[in-house]
Design a protein that fits this description.
Helix content is 2%, strand content 58%. By secondary structure, it is mainly beta.
Length: 262
């Protein structure tokens, strides 16, 4: 990889990075139901370009990071169902281009508050592929060229607010709320509309108590407070088995946690 950095001051840094990546080919470890599924998948190669900046205030209480990137994949590897096979397996979806922008803001307005906000924008496309699919309603096969890659929402936003509350001179409590908001997206390269994940927002809360300098702490948490129903994975099995596989995310979950550092 090649990295160029420019640091005009202690509170600013700009960079340009060009890197190559490689993931070897092999044979899928999935349960195989056809001779075609025994075919090996080819290596995946990546050429990545990224430009970004890191800025902070003089007292380091305010920090801003941002980067824009372009990823050029050759032989993008993904786990999905090809045509009317009865199993999902790791294989090459094709050549992929991804454009993206990420930014995060961290702010410590007081000694008690710790605030964070993050944003991600993505545009992905399978630009070249040998994979074709029979449509669900019959007719000629269609290529997956032009499809999005799995789990690549157009935008996602996350944030966290954390408040530190002194409990006397020896103990400290931390109250935290955080959220993640995700745009609709596909869960497999076939981009079947019936398997598309709708946009959703998850909100969580957490309370921690422990000694200021001690090795332990006790936490109580609630995840997915709104009991949002959302999909995390899916497989396109309708043509082979007459149904699809869909995996849902965790519902509202609460718990207690004890941590001790040796």
């Amino acid at each position: 990889s090649l990295v160029l950095k420019y640091t005009p001051s202690d509170n600013a840094m700009y960079y340009l990075r060009i890197a190559e990546g490689f993931r070897s080919g092999g044979f899928s470890s999935a349960v195989i139901f056809s001779q075609d599924a025994l075919e090996p998948y080819e290596p995946e190669e990546l050429l990545a370009y990224e430009v970004g900046l890191k800025l902070s205030s003089s007292d380091n209480r305010l920090r801003f990071d941002s980067s824009a990137f372009y990823y050029d994949y050759q032989g993008f590897q993904a786990t999905f169902v090809r045509a009317n096979e009865a199993n999902a397996r790791l294989q090459n979806a094709g050549d992929v281009e991804i454009y993206g922008l990420e930014a995060s803001l961290d702010w410590l307005p007081t000694e008690q508050w710790d605030l964070n906000l993050g944003l991600s924008l993505l545009d992905s496309e399978i630009v070249s592929t040998s994979v074709v699919l029979p449509p669900l309603d019959g007719g000629p096969e269609v290529t997956i060229a032009g499809n999005e890659i799995p789990n690549a929402p157009g935008f996602s936003i996350n944030g966290r607010a954390r408040y530190y509350l002194p409990l006397g001179s020896s103990f400290l409590a931390a109250l935290q709320a955080d959220f993640t908001s995700v745009d609709e997206h596909f869960l497999e390269p076939n981009n079947r509309e019936v398997l598309k994940a709708d946009s959703y927002t998850l909100v969580n809360a957490r309370v921690e108590v422990g000694p200021r300098e001690g090795p332990w702490r006790v936490s109580a948490f609630v995840r997915n407070i709104g009991d949002e129903v959302y999909r995390t994975a899916a497989q396109d099995l309708a043509l082979a088995l007459g149904f699809n596989e869909m995996v849902l995310g965790f519902p509202r979950t609460w718990g207690l946690q004890f941590e001790y550092q040796f």
